[in-house]
Amino acid sequence: MEFIAKNTADLDQICEKLIEQFHHKVILFYGEMGNGKTTLIKQLCKKLGVTEPTSSPTFSIVNEYKTNDNKTIYHFDFYRIKNETEVLDFGYEEYLYSNNFCFIEWPEKIPNMLPEDVVKVYITLDKDNHRVIKVN
């Protein structure tokens, strides 16, 4: 499935359709720096009922959000991870197998620690600088 986001206003409708494709709770987001991974995750959180402010967990590695029906969403950013041992040290597996949504940016930094049952979201830019969002 593929979507084109010409601007951030397009994300509202795209996120509704993306959520329908989330048959697993672990969602991996692939894309170059600045392609919009965090922006897309913020909109997904909003659509899932998060009312508190969301932000990139670049320095904290993981942020936890509560939805309006008291469900938990975990947002990971592994950009600054140097090796997979760092991830084990903060109890990553407990989050991963919590049956809560886990949105993971930079999953390519921890390839040996990813479960098989995931949804992969790829964000690239087309020639017009629009976001191309593909779900696998």
Task: Give a brief outline of the structure.
The protein has 136 residues and is of the alpha/beta class. The chain is built from four helices and seven strands.
Can you walk through the features of this model?
This protein is 24% helix and 28% strand. The protein has 136 residues and is of the alpha/beta class. α1 (11-20) crosses α2 (37-47). The longest helix has 11 residues, at 37-47. It is globular and about 40 Å long.
How are the SSEs ordered, and which strands pair?
Blueprint: E1 2-5, H1 11-20, E2 26-30, H2 37-47, E3 62-66, E4 72-77, H3 84-89, H4 92-96, E5 101-105, E6 118-125, E7 131-135
Parallel strand pairs: 2-5, 2-6, 4-5
Antiparallel strand pairs: 1-7, 3-4, 6-7
